[in-house]
Specification:
Helix Hairpins, mainly alpha, 0% strand
Length: 176
């Protein structure tokens, strides 16, 4: 069996459709996308192998044997795909039982990250670093270059106390 254009197109269509369905919010479409993608990759692996006779010594000459490695890889991939499909179907069924549909909703943390990214895009390039550099409680020392990743501590003068200054709220908690 020589790979021809039709089989290559079938592999492309299966993989493209599978990836498209994997990006949907419905768990049933995700399951179908996973199945299609798995079948497309299995067909691709099978097409990569050499075609020929049965890979049994004594029945077929070694030069005419098909490649058994690709067949073993496809069998392994089929078992893995079956297990993942069963797991995804169980997730979809449980989602249907709990909330009545299989739509995957946005996570609250995802929404918060998007909101922070939009705020960060609207701010200036060094706004957040300048505030950190001015605040001695966070670790800034006034004249820190915001481009430095790991700034050195400010030089100590003779007679300086090597301990960091105490926060006012810490002094009250210690009872001093």
């Amino acid at each position: 069996m020589r790979p021809n254009l039709v089989l290559a197109v079938v592999v492309g269509v299966l993989c493209a459709t599978g990836v498209t369905l994997l990006l949907e919010r419905s768990l049933s479409r995700v399951v179908l996308g996973f199945i299609l993608l798995g079948n497309g990759v299995n067909l691709l692996i099978l097409l990569a192998g050499r075609s020929g006779g049965a890979p049994v010594l004594g029945v077929t000459p070694p030069a005419g044997m098909s490649d058994p490695l690709t067949q073993a890889m496809v069998l392994t991939a089929l078992v893995i795909t079956l297990g993942m499909t069963a797991f995804l179907l169980a997730l979809a069924y449980r989602s249907w039982q709990l909330i009545g549909h299989d739509e995957v909703q946005d996570d609250l943390e995802d929404r918060r990250i998007v909101r922070l990214a939009e705020q960060d895009r609207n701010s200036g390039p060094d706004d957040s670093l300048a505030e950190v550099a001015r605040d001695p409680w966070i670790g800034g020392a006034g004249g820190i270059d915001p481009e430095q990743v790991d700034p050195e501590p400010p030089p100590r003068r003779l007679g300086d106390d090597p301990r960091p200054p105490r926060r006012p709220d810490r002094e009250e908690a210690d009872g001093e």
